[in-house]
């Protein structure tokens, strides 16, 4: 037995852990503080204070002497490594292992990952589930992004990547929430009879928990019948070919959609470049010099070469490419840079004296730039051949000073994926996410005014630059070119591969958004969403303007009473009153509601014995109880957070241009009912993200970001009082029931106000409890009439929602179904004058004369 000396007893080295206990007889009542060294490298500092009753029972002064050390993954490679322990003063602690005392202990470990998974089931046309695996670097950390294989009746039918956001899993397991997957069986896999589906983790081919799963995919009787007939006709071959074609034409399938984007992209790219070659010859007026800034730091040479060649291949010829080597220190790269510069006089090769980061490298390029226009290219990304031609043509036509395009990603196999079909200029969205990203073209004078890139914001330097530019331009000076002109390459560890791959970028983004708001004199707390480069703005305002919450109802006393009780009990904002508009209720229980109202001085009730006219009822309430803001609320909408009203008011108070603010509403089952409104859906307008789980963001995360939209539902909508009366309130004469909220939002926009959607106003909505639906004959006639009024009044506007990319279809599932793969920019530039484009896409000024008189 060792006496009066430092000593560490190792109990086990297995399963990725080193366990044991250690003590210092010179400090018998203290826990030893130690440094863990592997292969001569300090790995961890620990305090040996795990409870070891067995040690105490053996006669030591106390039991807090134990330790458990997780061996980092890089030491679990099956090779021999050496473990040492030292005191904080640098004294070596002897190690007792297998009854041998040494200064170090050798060990070998191999890594065997663990998996956690679940098949949630089949609902709403899709299998959903999740899978996590722990990492060799940190066995306690479970991450997503696993690759899966799906079998149906023994045949592989799909390969998936488990990278969908699952906040429920992340919270429950304290793990990476980007671990979910979704598989939608389509014809011919979808059958009306039971089939066995199996899900495997690849490449290990390990079956997930809950697999196999047996189900009948088609639950809709009509769809199932069509599939059965199609199968029968297929067996008759030539004799019934015509009939088979007719039946298959009835199948509810999309021609193109996001899930098969690669197919769409390949056809689109050809159409884009072909159309550009035809149209540009006759359109070109001038050819200003474009300086393309490309910082370079240790790229894969093959990717870098392709990036440069994509610039050389531009159909627009008047460009210069400025390559800035940020001290990569690679001879092969240096040779390649020199070769490109020697081969083409339009290519400049610069180099920093030391590695200074992307901002400083970009600034060096900006100083050397000679062009009137500046563009930016990452060192491994690709430009479409017609990119510069299209951007310059759009700049000439619109007079814009900042232009940005759509983009997608390209993986190592050459597949196009994850298209970013962007909205038009959306400043409020830009505060929460850099949705613009690539491809950006900006006037040199604007860059000079905004100033150089700020090294402090490396990782979010482009976001910072865009926000500084936004401080200097009017919305009409920014133009979105809705074409895929830029391909963002996915490489291991790149931001394109994982938005969370660069933690320093998250902090940089937080700071650049905060500084921007400070410069604008706006007070807010900025925080990250989901630990990614996505941000949440909590406005801070001391203003407390008056609010009238208007709730029309007829009977449904229990529902209405629960609605207002919910408001009274949950709302922290105090300067409000509730205005109940009783539309001829006959329920004898109305006395219960009246008793509750009489006990609360801030609740008013108006009785209107008139036929149901939603617009008129709300207008009467606002005229009777005017306020700084009105909140129009259905009696079947139940607020879920205490700060809901403060959020709405603050969103409007910080920006006098805000005319209305709406929220994110879910059905009682937790799925989304309203995530904003898109024009053109169903002919007039429709809700988006409907049916998604309440915490999902949908396409591009849009459901989870505060942003400008064309309209929001008046089931729960705050409207600025001054603006409401300025435009003539709701149209009670022509839009009594349907579309009055859409019409109101469009008239607000025509008057120069913006409409904001925010998920921070979160509520549960029992849709249409308050008035029923539109399926009975009388309602059908009224709905048809109001639809026609909207089409006649807003037909031109409804054909293009500036916040819904024109490559998405409005006749099928929003943010999923795609229009045919054809460019749209030329139609816009040729059919609409430049200034009309900017007007129509900002405040609808052509419609500003529409004011309703009541």
UniProtKB/TrEMBL annotation:
One of its GO terms (molecular function) is glycosyltransferase activity. Keywords: Glycosyltransferase, Transferase. InterPro entries: Glyco_trans_2-like (IPR001173), Nucleotide-diphossugar_trans (IPR029044). Residues 291-426, 548-670 form the Glycosyltransferase 2-like domain. It is an enzyme of class 2 (transferase). Its EC number is 2.4.1.-. It comes from the Bacteria. The keyword Transport does not apply. This is Glycosyltransferase. It comes from Granulibacter bethesdensis.
């Amino acid at each position: 037995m060792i006496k009066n000396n430092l000593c560490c007893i190792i109990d086990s080295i297995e399963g990725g852990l080193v366990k044991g206990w250690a003590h210092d007889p010179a400090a018998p009542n203290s826990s030893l503080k130690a440094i863990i060294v592997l292969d001569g490298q300090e790995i961890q500092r620990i305090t040996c204070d795990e409870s070891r009753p067995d040690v105490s029972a053996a006669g030591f002064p106390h039991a807090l002497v134990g330790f458990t050390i997780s061996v980092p993954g890089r030491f679990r490679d099956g090779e021999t490594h050496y473990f040492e322990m030292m005191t904080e003063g640098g004294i070596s602690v002897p190690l007792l292992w297998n009854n041998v005392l040494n200064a170090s202990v050798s060990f070998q470990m191999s890594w065997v990952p663990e998996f956690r998974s679940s098949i949630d089931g089949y609902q709403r046309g899709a299998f959903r589930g999740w899978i996590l695996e722990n990492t060799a670097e940190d066995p306690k950390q479970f991450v997503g992004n696993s690759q899966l294989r799906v079998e149906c009746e023994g045949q592989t039918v799909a390969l998936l990547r488990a990278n969908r956001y699952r906040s429920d899993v992340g919270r429950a397991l304290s793990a990476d929430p980007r671990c979910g997957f979704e598989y939608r069986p389509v014809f011919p896999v979808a059958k009306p009879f039971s089939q066995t589906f199996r899900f495997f983790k690849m490449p290990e081919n390990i079956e997930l928990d809950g697999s196999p799963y047996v189900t009948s995919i088609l639950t809709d009787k009509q769809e199932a019948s069509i599939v059965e007939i199609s199968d029968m006709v297929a067996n008759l071959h030539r004799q019934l070919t015509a009939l088979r074609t007719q039946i298959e034409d009835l199948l509810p399938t999309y021609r193109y959609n996001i899930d098969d984007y690669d197919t769409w992209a390949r056809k689109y790219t050809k159409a884009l470049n072909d159309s550009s070659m035809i149209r540009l010859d006759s359109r070109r007026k001038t050819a200003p010099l474009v300086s393309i800034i490309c910082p370079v730091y240790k790229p894969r040479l093959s990717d870098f070469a392709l990036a440069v060649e994509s610039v050389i291949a531009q159909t627009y010829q008047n460009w210069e490419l400025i390559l800035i080597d940020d001290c990569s220190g690679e001879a092969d790269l240096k040779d390649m840079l020199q070769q490109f510069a020697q081969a083409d006089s339009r290519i400049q090769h610069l180099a920093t004296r030391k590695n200074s980061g992307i901002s400083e490298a970009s600034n060096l390029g900006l100083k050397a730039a000679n062009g009137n226009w500046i563009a930016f290219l990452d060192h491994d990304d690709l430009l479409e051949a017609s990119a510069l031609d299209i951007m310059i043509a759009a700049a000439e036509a619109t007079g814009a000073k900042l232009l940005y395009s759509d983009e997608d990603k390209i993986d190592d196999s050459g597949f196009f994926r994850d298209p970013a079909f962007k909205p038009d200029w959306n400043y409020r969205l830009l505060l929460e996410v850099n949705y613009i990203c690539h491809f950006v073209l900006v006037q040199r004078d604007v860059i000079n005014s905004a100033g150089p890139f700020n090294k402090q914001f490396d990782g979010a330097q482009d976001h910072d630059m865009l926000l500084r530019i936004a401080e200097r331009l009017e919305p009409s000076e920014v133009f979105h070119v809705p074409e895929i002109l830029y391909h963002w390459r996915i490489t291991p560890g790149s931001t394109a591969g994982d938005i969370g791959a660069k933690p320093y970028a998250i902090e940089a983004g937080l700071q650049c958004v905060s500084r921007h708001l400070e410069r604008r004199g706006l007070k807010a707390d900025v925080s990250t969403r989901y630990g990614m480069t996505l941000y949440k703005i909590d406005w801070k305002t001391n203003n407390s303007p008056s609010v009238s919450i208007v709730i029309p109802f007829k009977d449904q006393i229990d529902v209405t009473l629960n609605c207002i009780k919910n408001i009274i009990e949950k709302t922290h904002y105090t300067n409000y009153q509730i205005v109940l508009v009783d539309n001829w209720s006959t329920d004898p229980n109305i006395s219960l509601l009246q008793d509750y109202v009489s006990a609360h001085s801030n609740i008013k009730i108006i009785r209107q014995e008139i036929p149901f006219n939603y617009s008129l009822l709300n207008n009467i309430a606002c005229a009777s109880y005017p306020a700084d803001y009105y909140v129009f609320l259905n009696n079947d909408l139940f607020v879920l957070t205490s700060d809901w009203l403060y959020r709405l008011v603050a969103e409007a108070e910080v920006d006098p241009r805000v005319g209305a603010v709406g929220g994110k509403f879910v059905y009682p089952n937790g799925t989304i009912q309203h995530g904003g409104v898109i024009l053109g859906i169903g002919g007039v307008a429709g809700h988006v993200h409907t049916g998604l789980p309440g915490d999902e963001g949908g396409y591009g995360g849009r459901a989870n970001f505060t942003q400008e939209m064309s309209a929001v539902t008046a089931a729960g909508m705050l409207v600025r009082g001054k603006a409401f009366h300025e435009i003539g309130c709701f149209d009670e004469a022509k839009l009594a029931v349907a579309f009055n909220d859409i019409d109101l939002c469009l008239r607000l926009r025509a008057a120069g106000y913006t409409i904001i959607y925010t998920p921070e106003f979160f509520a549960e909505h029992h849709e249409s409890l308050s008035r029923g639906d539109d399926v009975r004959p009388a309602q059908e006639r009224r709905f048809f009439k109001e639809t026609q009024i909207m089409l006649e009044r807003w037909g031109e506007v409804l054909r293009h929602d500036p916040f819904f990319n024109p490559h998405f279809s409005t006749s099928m599932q929003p943010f999923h179904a795609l229009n045919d793969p054809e460019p749209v920019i030329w139609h816009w530039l040729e059919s609409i004058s430049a200034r009309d484009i900017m007007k129509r896409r900002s405040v609808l000024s052509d419609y500003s004369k529409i004011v309703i008189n009541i």
